[in-house]
Amino acid sequence: MLSHISLPVRDLEVGRRFYAAVLGALGAEQVWANPRGVAFGVAGRDRFSLRVAPAGERPAAAAGFHLAFNAPRRAAVDAFHAAALAGGG
């Protein structure tokens, strides 16, 4: 079972705002933050975190990487999609 996942980002605040909106549509909320990262969770079960990429490094996408979020119902999928589009995703 997956305990958590962490993604590197160039701009932590931009990533935080985007994922707060899209993950909020799935019932997640911010559970912690510090100057190097932020995490979101659902009822203490799952954790999705963002971390700032080291200075001078670009976050790289891994070949074959796949990420999926569970949604409790179709309306949550639609809300996630709308939030992602509104956030530039």
Please tell me about this protein's structure.
- The chain is an alpha+beta fold and 89 residues long.
- It has one domain: Roll (2,3-Dihydroxybiphenyl 1,2-Dioxygenase, domain 1).
- Helices cover 29% and strands 28% of the residues.
- It has 2 helices and 4 strands.
- Strands 1-4-3-2 form a 4-stranded mixed beta sheet, with helices on one face.
- Strand 2 and strand 3 form a beta hairpin.
- The longest helix has 13 residues.
- The protein is globular.
> Helix proportion of residues, in percent?
25-40%
Cα shape: globular
Q: In DSSP terms, counting alpha (H) and pi (I) runs of 4 or more, how many helices?
A: 2
- What are the secondary-structure elements, in order, as H or E? EHEEEH
CATH topology descriptor:
2,3-Dihydroxybiphenyl 1,2-Dioxygenase, domain 1
What is the CATH C level class, in words?
Answer: Alpha Beta
> Major β-sheet, in short?
4 strands, mixed
What low-confidence regions span 5 or more consecutive residues with pLDDT below 50?
none
**Assembly category:** single chain
- The averaged pLDDT comes out at 83
CATH superfamily: 2,3-Dihydroxybiphenyl 1,2-Dioxygenase, domain 1
**In which order are the strands of the major sheet placed?**
1-4-3-2
Helix/sheet category: alpha+beta
Total beta strands: 4
Total count of domains = 1
- Please tell me how large the radius of gyration is: 13 Å
Range of strand content:
25-35%
The rounded distance between the terminal residues' Cα atoms is: 28 Å
Annotated CATH architecture:
Roll
